[in-house]
Amino acid sequence: MSESTPDPVRTIGPVRVVGAGLLGASVGLGLSAKGIDVIVHDASPTALSLAIDYGAGRKARDTDDPALIVVAVPPDLTAEVVAQELKAFPDALVTDVASVKVAPLSELSLVGADLSRYIGSHPMAGRERGGAISARADLFIGRPWVIAAHAGIPPTQTAVIERLALDLGAVPVRMSAEEHDRAVALVSHAPQAVSTLLARRLADAPESSLSLAGQGLRDTTRIAASDPALWVQIMGANSTYIIEVLRDIRTDLDVLIHSLSDQEANGARRSLAQILAGGNNGVARIPGKHGIDRRFAQIVVKVDDSPGELARLLTEIGEAGVNMEDLRIEHSPGADIGLAEIAVLPEAEERLVGVLEERGWKIAGAYL
Amino acid sequence: MSESTPDPVRTIGPVRVVGAGLLGASVGLGLSAKGIDVIVHDASPTALSLAIDYGAGRKARDTDDPALIVVAVPPDLTAEVVAQELKAFPDALVTDVASVKVAPLSELSLVGADLSRYIGSHPMAGRERGGAISARADLFIGRPWVIAAHAGIPPTQTAVIERLALDLGAVPVRMSAEEHDRAVALVSHAPQAVSTLLARRLADAPESSLSLAGQGLRDTTRIAASDPALWVQIMGANSTYIIEVLRDIRTDLDVLIHSLSDQEANGARRSLAQILAGGNNGVARIPGKHGIDRRFAQIVVKVDDSPGELARLLTEIGEAGVNMEDLRIEHSPGADIGLAEIAVLPEAEERLVGVLEERGWKIAGAYL
């Protein structure tokens, strides 16, 4: 290949990122780390300079001619900002990263925006905390990135957004805006609603009841701590599909209450058991450790339960030149052996397993 | 003190454990580790010998005269087995560890059991997996252990169960059977129901929707994978209080569906925002990192982002003679610094922080 052939999975800059919150700043950090020229813009000068300080990109210049624009503003501003950017940069392709996809597309269509240069997208990534301060270059690694191209989009344009997702380590997933909104209603918005409804019950509960809280309650209510202002927008924009899921939940809830109210009734126990078993079946369908949500490969190594052994393991991983992305230890106090679960980039897994086995470590498991 | 004075926080054996599942075997392991004579019994010879192999205790002998009996059988067998044990061992104090407390007490009262020797209790501990194979001596460390003494119980007897809880590292919490059942309906049984209702929606969902699943869905549905047979019993036995919570949830669910259905209606957005904010308030009331559920103190150390540095940290922790119970690393690939979150027994925290600071490590935080 001649030198002028561009890298097939390398986004062509400059990329203009509008909105320097968690997602925008993370896109900026990730692309900058790849050496791509990133322009960051935010209506708030404070947010903007914070993102630039963090290394998310540079300030805009009058001469900028971005090839690609990523709009990462709150959902209810998305269509308006996308329309502005389409006008201001008549040669650029514009995408957005909002959690809903039908609403921005219809709004843009209504105002007569140039849809041939707009493709909605949605990286399925986030953190508890928002803002550029929580941004991470690796936020998208291994996460699905939905690309919701509409009928008016040429395939070459869709490929640009795919390249963006791949450059950030994400897994591009093509679906229509409707498919996307229906999917996130189920896997993201309904869980938010249900978690919230449960958490609300704690607001007036006696202190002594809360003192018995365990991991089950913590897990089921964790996302109920999310920003209400953001979620009013998301739920409002995707209400049709969310209502469908919530109505089905309500039907089951009535059956559950009914079967608990009259347990001697014919079939009450069976209907209770069926509801609980149905929950089992549902959980089993979630892609697990082996699903695309895992950024890293996991290697589980048996370690004698002494701090010196673990230090030796880590030293030898370092000597192998492999970067450890995460480490968890599980052992029962008093037991003679523990397990170290090491996360590494998928491409390093096989070699590290080889090196460790060579040095006498027992590998309990290795998962991609 | 004379040599005959018993250790004030040491359970007097032999202790008979009936039921060699997760909880029973864990009680056996924990007490055996303290040198207390434990007799294990289970209706299943296979379960029994497995628990004995794991070190949970020894087989029963005809001459056994246990001072204390812990009944750890499924909820719907609890009252029956407690009654049998009270009869078979007329000098023993009997407790159970079932997840509901009103039902066993009423059943025992109905059959005229000797309630002066029965105290219901409930350790708030568990694991995803059941059986002796999942048992751990440290299962109860730092967890609340509810002691639901009824009016007919002398304080000296209650103290015996408190001693048992303390010997297993748990935190004794006194409440009535009614208070307990109301509390667990809220913090354990309603979360189970809600998680199940949500997970059921996944059973027939398209594969492509599930491929977008993230941590929020995983967390909210994790407990929906629990054993339906066990939960039919628990929910059946605590239906009154569970229904109260579920009815309140249904009321809120109706408001939520209504406000999403007609967003232009007067106050619809406000009522949606109020529900979401109410969820925030509820979550904020759950005892967090500083609550009694945490077994270990956490020390957060800044570490240069290179494997050699982490190995040196662990080596130096080992040299300080401190056992690390868990370790988590957080760092952004490409960043120059990472954080190591080290879990240690609370009593070791202060000393380890001192040693590490002396050696030049930067402590980002230390939490009991």
Automatic annotation (TrEMBL), chains A, B:
Signal peptide: none annotated. It holds the Pfam family PDH_C. Pathway: Amino-acid biosynthesis; L-tyrosine biosynthesis; (4-hydroxyphenyl)pyruvate from prephenate (NAD(+) route): step 1/1. Residues 13-290 form the Prephenate/arogenate dehydrogenase domain. GO terms for molecular function: NAD+ binding; prephenate dehydrogenase (NAD+) activity; prephenate dehydrogenase (NADP+) activity. It is an enzyme of class 1 (oxidoreductase). GO terms for biological process: tyrosine biosynthetic process. Residues 298-368 form the ACT domain. Its EC number is 1.3.1.12. It catalyses: prephenate + NAD(+) = 3-(4-hydroxyphenyl)pyruvate + CO2 + NADH. Keywords: Amino-acid biosynthesis, Aromatic amino acid biosynthesis, NAD, Oxidoreductase, Tyrosine biosynthesis. NCBIfam families: PRK06545.2-3, PRK06545.2-4. Belongs to the prephenate/arogenate dehydrogenase family. This is Prephenate dehydrogenase. It comes from Homoserinimonas hongtaonis. The lineage of its organism: Bacteria, Bacillati, Actinomycetota, Actinomycetes, Micrococcales.
